[in-house]
Amino acid sequence: MKDINTSNTSTIKIRRFTKQERLESKLSVELKNILIGLALGDLNIEKPSRTGHARLRFAQGLVHEEYLLHLFEKVRPYCRAVPYFPKTLHNVTGKFYPSIRFNTCTFACFDELYDLFYPEGKKILPLNIGELLTPVGLAYCPSELGPTGAVNQMLKILHFISSLSLIDRAT
């Protein structure tokens, strides 16, 4: 194992995960709820190959460094490397901006989230989002509201709130 220390993150051990670890890892209830909330925003869940497992990709502008480092601490057990800080080309302005990014390794425990949000390879809103989204997930969802997706995100939140209202009326 190799120690890595950057000025923006604490030291972590870099190591390879065994196939067994990738297959048997489980998400805590809290982390699963957080990831569901994040998946309603900018969190990208991908499968690098059709036969492999899913991984999580996190990216934000450097102005959100503290927030992304908080998320890194949540998923740190699934990561091999520390966040990195590339300059990213903005599609609208054509300018480069500093950003912060990191990925998890591929794990079987991420497959369920991939299947929920990307059933045919394209991101969707799961039909059962009212059952999936918890107060913890909802707390992370607004953090993901960006200027381009704010209206869609608010509709998702309103859907969640209305489903809670229906449950309250039924009881």
| Structure summary, number of beta strands | 6
CATH superfamily: Homing endonucleases
CATH topology: Endonuclease I-creI
Report the sheet with the most strands, covering strand number, pairing sense and barrel closure: 4 strands, antiparallel
List the uncertain runs.
Answer: 1-10
In short:
The protein is α+β, with helices and mostly antiparallel strands.
Could you characterize the architecture of this molecule?
- The chain contains 7 helices and 6 strands.
- With 171 residues, it is α+β, with helices and mostly antiparallel strands.
- The protein has a single domain (2-170), classed as Endonuclease I-creI.
- Strand 1 (2-6) and strand 2 form a beta hairpin.
- The longest helix is centred in the C-terminal third of the chain and has 21 residues, at 150-170.
- The N and C termini lie far apart (54 Å).
- It comes from Rhizoctonia solani.
Characteristics:
171 residues; alpha+beta; Endonuclease I-creI; four-stranded antiparallel β-sheet; 19% strand; globular; endonuclease; LAGLIDADG_dom; mitochondrion; LAGLIDADG homing endonuclease; endonuclease activity
List the helices and strands and how they pair.
Elements: E1 2-6, E2 9-14, H1 19-24, H2 29-39, E3 44-46, E4 55-61, H3 65-75, E5 87-89, E6 96-103, H4 111-117, H5 129-132, H6 135-140, H7 150-170
Antiparallel strand pairs: 1-2, 3-4, 4-6, 5-6
